[in-house]
Amino acid sequence: MWNSKWRLRRCGKIIAAVILLSFLRPFPMFGEPLTGQVPTLSENEMKRYSDLEVDLLIDAISEAALEAIEQAAGEAAKAAVLSMVEREAALLQAQTALQKDVEQLKSEMSLAKKAGFRNAIIAGLACFLGGLIFGVTGTIIISNQR
Hints:
Blueprint: H1 2-24, H2 51-145
Helix pairs in contact: 1-2
C-alpha cells in the first residue's frame, strides 16, 4: 500500500512539473516555423500580443496540459494495476508456501499416528508380559512357602 501511495505522489509531482514546464515552452508549439521575423525589443519596449495570439497560446497550453494529465493518469492506473498484480503474486506465493507446510504437517502427523499405535502395542505387550511374569513368580513363591 505504501508503494502505491508513493507512486501516486510521484505521478502527481510529475503532472505538476509537466504543467509548469508547459507554461515555459515558447510559442509556437510543436516546432512550427515562424511566419515572420520577430523583432528584437529593447529593454524599454514591451511586445503587445493580439487577442488571437493569446487565445492560441492558451489553447496550446491547455492541450499540452490535458495530454500531460492523460498520460499521468494512464501511468497512475498502470502503477495501481501493477501494485495489485504484485500483491496478488505475493499472496499466491504465501498460499503455496502454506500449502506445502500443511502437506508436510499432514505427513508428519500420519507418521506420528503410526508410531504411536506401534508404541501402544509394544507398551501393552510389555505390561502383559510383566504382569504375567510377576503373577507367575508370585504364585510360585507363594506356593513354595506352604
